[in-house]
Amino acid sequence: MPSPADHHRWRAERFAAVAAPTGNLALIETRWTGERPDLEAAQAEAGPGRTVTQIQRATSPDGDIEYGLRVWDADSPAIRAFDRIATYPFDPAWVLTGRFEPIAADRTVPFEHIRDNGGTRDLVVPGDVIVEIQGTEYTVAAFDDGGVLLLVFGDETNGTETYGSGRFLFVERAEGTGFGAPGPVVLDFNRAFVPPCGFSAQYNCPLPPASNRFPLPIRAGEKNVVFVDDSDIHAH
Questions:
Q1: Which among 18, 33, 75, 236 is placed 20 to 30 Å from 204, CA to CA?
Q2: Distance separating the N- and C-terminal Cα atoms of the chain
Q3: Is 62 exposed, middle or buried, given 0-12, 13-18 or 19+ CB atoms closer than 10 A?
Q4: What pTM, to 2 d.p., does this model score?
């Protein structure tokens, strides 16, 4: 069971990560180029104090790849305006045990993305997480985020107490458990976090599918990103 001290360390690490030179707050541009970009030329164009990295995404079930780049500024307007991440107090009651059930390798779930104007993209979902909350069992889809199970979820606090588009949560597995193996998981909702799009308008985050919207308030984890003087990151 995580302790308040464990949670405090996680909060400190999280704060440092989002404010790092290539953290969420530093992203000032995402540009899809189609072909693989010339990073050296792009870095020269970006100038000192900025970092350019390559990104890619699959554009078809056949594995066609589109390339792009991201530009990070260690002195971005969002970093300068960042105050804190508002959170709920640590509550051990929101550390829940569930189970992971793998599914067919070719199952996908349509996810809307925050900047896609209602369009959807099919994301591969390696399995479902079954968890009981306040006496009711829920089945939610977790997808593969670089070899880690990621839950994109919504609940009744979104838009009033927490980030309007939902929150993210990494699903914890026992050490040594294979990625796709069935078995117990831990959902520590105290570590539910605001997605990257809450820190920079240059991200295009997935929104919770209907199956991942809990019909109850989950008052644990991060609430919202707080900027000084109510700065608007979408203006940058």
A1: 75
A2: 41
A3: exposed
A4: 0.90
Four-point Cα dihedral 120, 118, 164, 160, nearest 10: -130
Backbone angles phi, psi at 193, to 5 degrees: -130, 155
pLDDT at 234: 59
pLDDT at res. 93: 97
Is 46 strand, coil or helix? helix
Residue 145 clears pLDDT 50, i.e. is over it: yes
Q: What is the pLDDT of residues 159-183, one digit of tens each?
A: 999 999 999 999 998 887 777 788 9
Pick the closest to residue 234 from 214, 207, 204, 211 (CA basis).
204
H or E segment and range at residue 79? helix 77-81
- Could you tell me the two tokens for 229? 């003087």
Residues 6+ apart with CB under 8 A from 79: 19, 25, 26, 73
Q: Cα(131)–Cα(150) distance, rounded to whole angstroms?
A: 15
CA angle 58, 191, 177 (to 5 degrees): 65
- pLDDT higher than 80, residue 207: yes
- The whole-number pLDDT of residue 62 equals 67
Residue 154 backbone phi and psi in degrees, to 5: -125, 160
Q: How many CB atoms lie within 10 A of CB 145?
A: 14
Which of 155, 135, 129 lies closest to 219, judged by CA?
155
